[in-house]
Amino acid sequence: MAVGLVVGLAAVSLVAAWAALCFSDLGGLLCVRPPLFVKESSYRAVLEEIGAGRITTGPEGTAPLPGRYTGLTPRDEVFIDRRPGGVVLVLFPVWYGRGGDLQGYLHASRPLADADYYTVDWGPGGVHQHLTVAGVEFLSAEPVRPPWYWVWRRVD
After folding, report:
1. Is the Cβ–Cβ distance between 63 and 78 less than 8 Å?
2. Tens of pLDDT along 138-148?
3. Beta strands 77-82 and 88-96: pairing type?
4. Contacts of 4 (CB under 8 A, 6+ apart)
C-alpha cells in the first residue's frame, strides 16, 4: 500500500514538474510544447469573445485580454489577424524569447492552405515555409489538430 502511494505521488510530482517546465522560459528555450488541452477551454472562451466583438485588436493586431484571463498568455495578450473572406487567425503565445522570438498556439477559422504561407530561402539555413499573423512574421507552423497549430519564430 505504501509503495503504491509513493509511486503515485512520484508520478504526480513528475507530471507537475513537466507541466511547469512546459510553460516556463526554460521550456520555451528547450522548445518544449505545452499540451493544448491544459488551456484549450480558456482559449475557446477567448475565441468566443473575439467572435462576439468583446475582445478587439489594438495597434498591430494585438488584443489585450480582460482581467479574467490574466496569466493565460505571458503578456496577457493575443494576436488577431482578420483576413479577406472572413478568415480569422488568433495566436495565443505561450513563450517569448529574445527579440521577436515566440512560440504558441494558433487557431485558424479554417484549416491553413498553401496560399497562407510564403517561402523564404535562408541560404545555409535552407528553404522554409512561413506565415505572418498580425504582423508577427516568419512563423513556422505544425498542425496539432486543425484548426489548431503549433507555431514558432526563432530568427533573433
Report:
1. yes
2. 999 999 998 99
3. antiparallel
4. none
This model's pTM is above 0.90: no
Cα 131 vs. chain centroid, distance in angstroms? 14
Write down the domain spans for the chain: 33-153
Q: Which of 46, 24, 5 is nearest to 96 (CA)?
A: 24
List helix spans (H) across the chain: 2-22, 25-29, 40-51
Distance between CA atoms of 84 and 99, rounded to whole angstroms? 29
Using CA atoms, how far apart are residues 28 and 25, in angstroms rounded to an integer? 5
Identify whether 74 is preceded by a cis peptide bond (ω within 30 of 0): no
For 145, the grid coordinates are 489538430
